[in-house]
Amino acid sequence: MLCWHMHQPDYRDRLTGEYYFPWTYLHALKDYTDMLAHLEANPRACAVVNFAPILLEQLDDYLSQVDQYLEKGEPIRDPMLAALMRDEQPTPGSEAFQTLAENCLRAHRDRMIERFPAYRSLVQVFEQAIEAPQGLNYLTEQFLIDILVWYHLAWLGEHHRRHDDRIKALQEKRGGFTKEDRRTLLSVVADQLRLIKPGYRALHEQGRIELAMSPYAHPILPLLLDFDSARQAMPKVSLPEASQYPGGEARAHWHVRHGLEVFEQYFGCRPKGCWASEGALSDATLALLSEEQFLWSATGDSVLHNSIKHKDNKGLAPKHLHRAYQFEGSDLYTFFRDDGLSDLIGFQYADWHAEDAVGDLLNHLVNIADHSDDPEACVISIIMDGENAWEYYPENAWHFLEALYRRLGDHPRLELTTYEAALAERELEPVALKHMVAGSWVYGTFSTWIGDRDKNRAWDMLCEAKAVYDQSVEVLNEAEREAAELQLAQCEGSDWFWWFGDYNPSGSVRDFDYLFRRHLTNLYTLLKQPAPEYLKSAFSHGGGSPAAGGVMRKGHAEGAT
Predict the structure, then answer these.
(1) pLDDT tens across 217-244, in order?
(2) 6 and 154 assigned to the same domain
(3) Is residue 554 part of a domain?
(4) Which bin fits 74, alpha (ψ -120 to 50), beta or left (φ > 0)?
(5) Other C-beta atoms within 10 Å of 257: how many?
(6) Confidence check: pLDDT of 319 > 80
(7) I need a surface site. Which of 218, 387, 446, 560 has the fewest CB within 10 A?
(8) Which domain covers residue 251, as residue numbers?
(9) Phi, psi at residue 124, to the nearest 5°?
(10) 93: closest CA among 122, 123, 129?
């Protein structure tokens, strides 16, 4: 099973419609379209593609904005896309000029900037200018236009770069881009955004992929249900001052049910599987997903290792993790990510020749099959981020993914399939265990989202806001209640907690600290209540330098096996 998880948090200000950061549309251009192209190009390719519903909403919103601009000149509410089309750019030497140019450097230096000589030259000129006194004053408005165009060209998917004559022409022009050139580039953006919904939907209808979902705004369901679940894998963890998240069970059900509404509206089908946000599962979460009539879910293999060691499962431990499981109290099928294989793709193979990397992976897969106690029931799950890994590969992993699908599709012993198809066709007999030790795919714990001083502080802020919500929401009219409920969901997402903590890069922590406080402030505004004074001040600052800049993590902690 290849399961690609597509997810970006909600970067919108729900009061203004403005986007704070461009990552949703940039990953749509680079990653969602390229993965679609690989799946379409290889008839034997198949995968599970999991979407967070809040991402699907943003994709629709972006397409609507770009179309409205191209057709009617309506404003674009994303700062980077708006800057690309702006008639007048900031004055050279101004703070706004420098900030916008610096934003155009937010791409992988080796794979996305150095690859294009014209883009590389612009970046080098800017870096030299900011080192010289008054150096930015010597740059021009055309310089800013050109670096904006190259920033967007670098973030385009490889399929369209190779096949779209409009992109080829812009890259060959190198610079001096006109308003007409920029409009052409925006038309490319619109065309690529337009492909995503019908493309994935068609592959699903053809039975070539399985579409799955996460809860609406990507919350950590076990923590909404019970903070104490974190102690199952971390007995000594320090928890927030709030004993529980107020009304957490109702909110967990809401995220699943509203997520289903958004998903079904977007793709026209109901998913059979749910990759619970970050693979965060517990007995209570499995019961909830079963109640909501999902067929399967999955998490990291550290959760299985922790569960096998538990006294309730004594004598029931299977020989291998590559099986379907069921836990007492739920008829849901649970699968476990092979963290080692997934991390090879995420962190190691980017620097290998594509054929060598895929060959190494196939050797691992065959070795697992050779040592399986039941090869017909052997299910090897590679589950990983479907977007962030590829910028570390040459040409957006074009060669690696092509070889991966081709060689797996042609392999005489390995069958590339989906969870839904395997369960329907193979009649997999699940291994029964009594108790799941709650955890996520990251280290088998919830340490990425709770237990740290800053993470716990964020939970206490959220709990306080939820208490005000519970007291205030009933006096609002229906439209106001709906707006407040969606705003609350935005605050409950997992991403804010992921980034809090000293081990993360200070720039990313600063961005997500600001977003979290902004979203909470907006919630108080919608509830017609004063926001606490502490929301005006940053509370998490970062300063670390994790692998991949912190956007990805390895499944096992360093030194763990």
Answers:
(1) 999 999 999 999 999 999 999 999 999 9
(2) yes
(3) no
(4) beta
(5) 12
(6) no
(7) 560
(8) 214-446
(9) -65, -40
(10) 129
